[in-house]
Design goal:
The protein has about 100 residues and is mostly helical. The chain has helices spanning about 5-50, 55-100. The chain contains two helices and no strands.
C-alpha cells in the first residue's frame, strides 16, 4: 500500500472522529438545555401550586402538570432522536465514500 492508498481512509477517519466530537458536543448541549427546561418547568409549576385552594383544583393542576411534563419530555426525546438520526446518516455517508 502506498501513501495514496492510505490517504482516503485516513481522511475518512478524521472526518468521522470530528463528527463524533461534534455529536458529543451537541448531545451535551441538548442535555444541558433539557435540564434547564425541566428546572424551569418545575419552578413554574411550584408557583402555580401555591394558588391551589380546593381538592378539585389540585386534581386539575396535577393532570395539567403531568401532561405538560410528558409533552416536554416528548419534545426533548424528539430532539435527541433527530440528533442521533442526523449523526448516523452523516456517518453512513462518510463510510459509503470510503467504499467507493
Amino acid at each position: 500500500m502506498t501513501n495514496l492508498d492510505l490517504q482516503k481512509p485516513l481522511e475518512t477517519m478524521k472526518t468521522l472522529m470530528a463528527l463524533q466530537a461534534s455529536t458529543m458536543n451537541k448531545s451535551v448541549e441538548l442535555q444541558k438545555a433539557s435540564g434547564e427546561q425541566l428546572a424551569s418547568f418545575f419552578k413554574t409549576e411550584m408557583e402555580k401550586a401555591k394558588d391551589l385552594k380546593t381538592p378539585e383544583d389540585m386534581v386539575k393542576f396535577n393532570v395539567a402538570a403531568n401532561q405538560g411534563l410528558f409533552d416536554l419530555m416528548k419534545a426533548q426525546g424528539e430532539a435527541f432522536t433527530a440528533l442521533a438520526t442526523s449523526a448516523s446518516q452523516t456517518a453512513m455517508d462518510e463510510m459509503q465514500k470510503l467504499a467507493k
